[in-house]
Design a protein that fits this description.
The chain is an alpha+beta fold. It contains 1 helix and 3 strands; from the N terminus they run βββα.
Length: 49
């Protein structure tokens, strides 16, 4: 994968299979952050002694 930058500030991402995708830097940062893990809200809390 190769990431390039165009004159207008948009990033171009070139994949090995030949696909090219355009993205803004903010979109690329969001895509690299793993999604948060959610825990069940109604799960009983453990007793603390």
């Amino acid at each position: 994968m190769v990431i390039g930058c165009r004159f207008d500030g948009q990033l171009t991402v070139h994949f090995a299979n030949g696909r090219v995708q355009h993205a803004s830097p903010d979109e690329l940062i969001l895509a690299s952050i793993p999604p948060p893990t959610y825990r069940e809200v109604n799960a009983p809390l453990t007793d603390r002694g």
